[in-house]
Specification:
heterodimer; A: 4-stranded antiparallel sheet; 3-stranded antiparallel sheet; 4 helices; B: 208 residues; alpha+beta; 6 helices; 20% strand
Chain lengths: 210, 208
Amino acid sequence: MEPVEADVEVTEDDYVEAFEASGQKGGRVLRRALVVLAVAAAALVALSWPFPPGAWVLVVPVALLAAWLAPRQSGWLARRAFAARPAAWNAVRVALTEDEVRLSAELLETRRAWSRVDGWLETPRLFALVGASTITDVWPKAAFGDDEARERVRALLARCVPAHGTGRDAAGRPEARDARTRRLARKGRVVLLAILALTLVALYAVWRSA
Amino acid sequence: MSAYRTEARVARALELSRQDYVAAIRGQLRPLLWRVVAPWVAAVVALCTGLMMARLTLGVALGAGGLVAALVAIVAVWALSGATRHLDRRLDDAREVHLDVSEEAFAIRDRSASLRVAWPLVIAWRETQDALLVYADASRFHVLPKRLLSREEITVLRRLLEERVPPGGEARLAAAARGAWGPFALYLATLAVLWAALVEALAALLGA
């Protein structure tokens, strides 16, 4: 198969979009968990009123702080990562084959077998690679040309790299969990967190009444 | 530039062990942990313990604070060991490294990856007791163990790194570390508060 090649230019906004997409799953769960905790904390205050001070009074400000910071974290990490990278990495020629991904520019040349890439993800505008739990490569789809070329990239990535956030199957191929399984897993986590929060509230209620 | 300097080059294969990587990773993570993460988490745990004293007896509050600190430490150690878990998945490919460092560029390759960058793209370098670490990315470094290099090679490498790597590397690494480790410290602090509330409630429930 002919390598898929493209001249790619990446901006800070591209990085932010890719980081937000990679953190979306965890971010959603975290946001819901924080809402549950905030509700639990409010219920706790109501049940315990008038309450003696204790470590629990920190739960409310910490939950509020985390709720404010959580949606901003991806953008913060993306801007830091983008700023830390020499500008030469932002305009490179990308060549994708069945075996590896190659990047080249005037001052750099790299090659990675697909086994060194942990995952890939896609947004409406971008393809991105994930390595060691962080975004390593961001490629605007526009760089690859028409829809047919983009479909070749998508098919190549799907063949060679696990989709980000999913496991591999026994053959080492991407094991894409269907949307229903993902929804159930998310709901399961939220329910578990809700149980934890309610347990805390119940413990306080018992304690107050004792 | 003298002829000696123009010809300065280290090109050779290195057989790295897991210990070479682990020692380098730990050596780089520990200072970050103590500088960026530990002060915040310790302050929050101390605050929690102080607040618990208002409700619990002194001994129980101190014990509860210690328990919270231990739980947070376990989570922190588990999270930090992610780097070595990642290394273990890649170790077979990364054991044998071919290094080619010249006046023009830093190049390194192993079984499944290669990198060749001109010196302006090397972000920073550090020297530890055991190795030279070259950062072509703010969050990843290449390990060049001194035990595998001759004294002359170490001297040449050190001189190339001193002369060719753009200044300001340490500041860039520090900024990147704050960016990455700040949220981690916040998560640990949040965890400490939640656990402290739980431990406090349990202790009070048990009549402590």
